[in-house]
Task: structure prediction
Amino acid sequence: MLYRFMSWNVNGLRAAVKNGAVSVLKGNDYFGIALQETKADNTNIPEEMYHLGYYLYNNPAKKKGYSGTMSLVKEKPLGVSYGFESEEGRILNLEFDKFYFINVYFPNSQHGLTRLDMKLDFDEKFLEYANELRKKKPLIICGDFNVAHEEIDIARPKDNENNAGFTKQERDWMTKFLNSGYIDTYRLFVKDGGHYSWWSYRFNARAKNIGWRIDYFVVSDDVKDRVKGADILENVTGSDHAPVTLEIDM
Result:
């Protein structure tokens, strides 16, 4: 069966809905949709989200108006869990018969790298978490990883060498993660640069395509050959991020 997925950092769900996100979410036949940085607890989810034809699962941060993940799926999952992190709503794991669908919003190491240590700790814990889960069944992992892996994943690598999301430590962890048996699905199909999923709101960056590719679909390598497509919907607006998509035959 061909499964289609979408992942999108909406940078505030209510704002994204006002900016037309609902038409994006219901305009395609996705089996699963993963949203990050929703900033929505269970009391202020826009009503429209309940009328898309999906089961909706929300993992809000304890701090109001911050972080958070939400997943929408066409089938009721066998189980719902929240990983190793409970304060900031960063992991939402839905178990299905053939795979785990893991929505993750990695921390941003922040200006001045004030959260770099916290980010790297989260990174390591996530790798351990994924490695344990994959012993049971294949993994489909998606979300905002808050790191541009290689120089081709960022418009201005030299200008950003020591900046959050492009430090050597963060990039080295991403290399370690992928070398541990995980596949950056987009790079199965697109080998060149110039394709990004996030642009600053400043300096007209999106129009100039001065961006970063920090949103990913990653699968465990046991299903690498089942991946049929991966894309960035660069023309979809409503957030400072573009949605990313995956097609996989499971």
